[in-house]
Amino acid sequence: MATFIKEEFLNDNDYTFLYQCSSDNEFRKIIEQTMLARGYRNIGDDVYEKGNGTLRMLFGAFYKHYKMEIMPQYLGDDQVRVSIKKRSSGFAGGVFGINQIQKELRELYMLFKVL
């Protein structure tokens, strides 16, 4: 079980949180379950993707595509630092696409605050 401790860093493109958890492997499982429940798939190297990038290029904002990096780092003393960064800009969807990416990142921010 993970317990939220505090926010460490916030800006428009990434967030960093500190949790109390016995290991980063345990927290990786929590991340995996959470992201799968939201429709994401793990494409490796702590990167999660939702949607299809090719269809996003073809149909723009009418087709959603998100790519996020969620990287846990074990600090010792049962503390895990988790960084959430967007890995797609949303430019393929124009202004609406950029807003969709920002909205999804904010939703992940709220979700990870209550883990």
Write structural notes for this entry.
With about 120 residues, this protein is of the alpha+beta class. The chain has a single domain, classed as 2-Layer Sandwich (TATA-Binding Protein), CATH 3.30.310. Helix content is about 35%, strand content about 40%. The chain has helices at about 25-35, 55-60, 95-115; strands spanning about 5-10, 15-20, 40-45, 45-50, 65-75, 80-85. The chain has a 6-stranded antiparallel beta sheet with strand order 1-2-6-5-4-3. A hairpin with a 2-residue loop joins strand 5 and strand 6. The N and C termini lie close together (about 10 Å).
Fraction of residues in β-strands: 35-45%
The low-confidence parts are none
Order of helices and strands: EEHEEHEEH
Average residue pLDDT: 87
Q: What's the CATH architecture?
A: 2-Layer Sandwich
Keywords:
single chain; 115 residues; alpha+beta
List the helices and strands and how they pair.
Blueprint lengths: L2 E8 L3 E7 L3 H14 L3 E4 L2 E5 L1 H7 L5 E12 L2 E8 L7 H20 L2
Antiparallel strand pairs: 1-2, 2-6, 3-4, 4-5, 5-6
In short:
With about 120 residues, the chain is α+β, with helices and mostly antiparallel strands.
